[in-house]
Write a structure and sequence with these properties.
With about 180 residues, the chain is α+β, with helices and mostly antiparallel strands. It has three helices and nine strands, in the order αβββββαβαβββ. β4 and β5 form a beta hairpin.
Length: about 180
Amino acid sequence: MTAQSTLSQSPMTRITVMQGQTQVSDSQSIELTTVLGSCVASCLFDPEAHIGGMNHFLLAEPPASHTPGVVDEHYGVYLMELLINEMLKSGAAKWRIKAHLYGGANLRTGMMPIGTANANFARSFLEQEGIPLVHADLGGNCARRVDFRPAQGRARCRVVENTLVTEKPETRSSANTGDVELF
C-alpha cells in the first residue's frame, strides 16, 4: 500500500462548529460540521494553500446600543474578520479565498426575518471584501446540516425538514392512586 492510498483511507475527524465559533484547518482528514436555522455559516477556503475554515454566527451586527469596544463572538461582523485572519495566519492568501454560505432560514412565520438579515449581511460582507461566492444555500424556512472539508473546499448541505407534533399528548388521570409511574 502506498502512502497516497493510506492517506485517502484515513478516517475523517469531525469537529462541530457551534454558535459564535470559528475553526480553520489545512488537514485533509478534518471535516467541520454545524446545524443552522436562522444562523449563517461561512465556509471559506484557499484552493491553492489547501486551507479553509467555517464560522457560525447568530446575528449579523450588534445593535446600536451595544457597548463600543466590547467583542461579542455571536455577531457575523466579528466572526467573518476572525475567520479570514485565522486563515491568513495559517498561510492562505486573501486574493485566493473563495466562499460558500449556508443557513439564513426564517423558521417561524410572523417573527422578525433574522435569517434574511444574516444572509444579506454575509453576502454583502463577501462582496465588500472581494471574496467570490461560489455556492450559497440560504433562506427558506428549514434548518440545514452542513459538512465542510476545509482543505478541499468541499461542502455538503442537507435540509432538515420542519416537523411539528400535531397529536395531542396522552391524557392521564389526576386521581392520586399512590402508584409510581416510571418513564
